[in-house]
Amino acid sequence: MSTLAARALLAVVFWPSLFFFWFLGPFVFFLLSTTSSEVCPRLETRAEFLHAASGALPMLVLQNLFYVVPIVCLVLWNRLLPEPVRASRVVTCIKLFAVAAVLGALWEYGSSLVCDGYGQPFFSPVWQMTSYLPIANLAVNIPLYVLVFSLGRTFSMREDDPAADAVDPDGNAS
To answer: Where are the transmembrane segments (predicted)?
Structure first.
């Protein structure tokens, strides 16, 4: 497979996954992964509540597996077109993604532990501090989104000379 075809295939995966997973996905996964308001009033013991909150963990793992698709595309693009400056930016994306994934998981898991349905604190007040994690997560995600978008745009654009690939009306390549 030619490099151009591989880059195009990666672009077909990268752009939809970036839009659907990174821009729309957080809303869907947040609704699915946290303990809902209907479940909270039915929980009576600490064990039941912890079990319900821990049920969110598989959804958090699935969420991060979906979110990693654009990063994997960047890594594959970088392997196709190695360039030191871009490679360092891809490494920065990987680091920012890891921090964002940890902050997001702590926030979503912690927010599901805050509610007990009766106003009783089942867990330490430290879990209540997770309500501030979206601010930290936003501070990490904004530069991550900008960097991933700009790298994706750079990687998915043709670097070769389009005039060299032009075909004249007689069917001969110029």
So the answer is: 12-32, 52-77, 89-109, 129-148
